[in-house]
């Protein structure tokens, strides 16, 4: 059977790395306060000339090298972002031009922190339908440009960055328990717009005519995140026909170390199986899952044949999970 197989990963971070101590020089906070509540120690902040598109381009270029492909081999480019370079055109088309891909389907997906999971399901569906053979799936953000730097409860949580993967149509064994069953085995997505007011940006083209700033009710978001993420991971594993103990690694959305710990406990997963980068990157929204995945692939923790669960939840609320054998 044909599945979308992961053949390459890549990531990119802005040059400027900001510690909690440096942040405390301009915000009423401290390293101790941030680490205790979030686990975050550093974040990268985009500088002049660094945009969502340039970060996405660099991550995509690294993923292509990892997959052993040229830009012209790609016929589908899906970019997840909540911080596009422009209202339009889609940032994906800017990345397409930067990579010198003459022609491919290119568009953005907007589902905030869950955007990368949404993009994975879109690309997986298009590949399995036979419409495309090779896809670049990217999550890229410059959240620093929509933060209220006077609000210490939110501005300390986020950073900028990009991550990308290559998915290719490949023959794969049907039996998910067979090591030859590589690729995306199952995905599950959800949304509940009744909770818009808990995590949102207070601006937009058709409302205020401005970009706006991020607003969040952290306690309520935390409560929903733990319940929803544990449930959707179980749902995706059930759809794939796999038990929880078959999971080699969980690569979660890097929002808050306490959410990661609570979700792992709810699923009875050992913390050693959870990839954690929130301490180094903070919350990079749609970029956080592919960033963490690329790091775990490059340092050798995730090996060919491993069962990996990706999961994320973001504003909307939107949330989702994907089960992949790499």
From TrEMBL:
Catalyzes the condensation reaction of fatty acid synthesis by the addition to an acyl acceptor of two carbons from malonyl-ACP. Catalyzes the first condensation reaction which initiates fatty acid synthesis and may therefore play a role in governing the total rate of fatty acid production. Possesses both acetoacetyl-ACP synthase and acetyl transacylase activities. Its substrate specificity determines the biosynthesis of branched-chain and/or straight-chain of fatty acids. The active site is at 113, 253, 283. Pathway: Lipid metabolism; fatty acid biosynthesis. This is Beta-ketoacyl-[acyl-carrier-protein] synthase III. It catalyses: malonyl-[ACP] + acetyl-CoA + H(+) = 3-oxobutanoyl-[ACP] + CO2 + CoA. Its EC number is 2.3.1.180. It is found in: Cytoplasm. It comes from the Bacteria. Pfam families: ACP_syn_III, ACP_syn_III_C. Keywords: Acyltransferase, Cytoplasm, Fatty acid biosynthesis, Fatty acid metabolism, Lipid biosynthesis, Lipid metabolism, Multifunctional enzyme, Transferase. Residues 107-193 form the Beta-ketoacyl-[acyl-carrier-protein] synthase III N-terminal domain.
């Amino acid at each position: 059977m044909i599945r979308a197989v992961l053949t390459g990963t890549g990531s990119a971070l802005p040059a400027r790395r900001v510690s909690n101590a440096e942040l405390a020089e301009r915000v009423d906070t401290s390293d101790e306060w941030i680490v205790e509540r979030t686990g975050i120690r550093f974040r990268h902040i985009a500088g002049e000339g660094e945009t969502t598109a340039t970060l996405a381009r660099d991550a995509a270029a690294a993923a292509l090298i990892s997959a052993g492909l040229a830009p012209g081999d790609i016929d589908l480019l899906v970019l997840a972002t909540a911080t596009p370079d422009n209202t339009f055109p889609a940032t994906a088309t800017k990345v397409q031009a930067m990579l010198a891909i003459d022609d491919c389907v290119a568009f953005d997906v907007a589902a905030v922190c869950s955007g990368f999971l949404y993009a994975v399901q879109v690309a997986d569906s298009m590949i399995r339908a036979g419409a495309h053979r090779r896809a670049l799936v990217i999550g890229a953000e410059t959240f620093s440009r929509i933060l209220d730097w006077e609000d210490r409860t939110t501005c300390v949580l986020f950073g900028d960055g990009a991550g990308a993967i290559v998915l290719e149509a490949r023959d794969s064994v049907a039996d998910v328990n067979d090591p030859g069953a590589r690729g995306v085995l199952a995905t599950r997505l959800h949304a509940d717009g009744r909770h818009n007011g808990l995590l949102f940006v207070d601006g937009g083209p058709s409302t205020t005519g401005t970009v706006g700033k991020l607003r969040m009710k952290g306690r309520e978001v935390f409560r929903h995140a733990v319940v929803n993420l544990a449930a959707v991971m179980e749902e995706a594993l059930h759809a794939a026909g796999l038990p929880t103990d078959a999971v080699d690694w969980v690569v979660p959305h890097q929002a808050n170390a306490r959410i990661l710990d609570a979700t792992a406990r709810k699923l009875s997963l050992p913390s050693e199986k959870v990839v954690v980068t929130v301490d180094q990157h903070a919350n990079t929204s749609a970029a956080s899952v592919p960033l963490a995945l690329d790091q775990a692939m490059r340092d050798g923790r995730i090996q060919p044949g491993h069962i990996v669960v990706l999961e994320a939840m973001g504003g909307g609320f939107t949330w989702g999970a994907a089960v992949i054998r790499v």
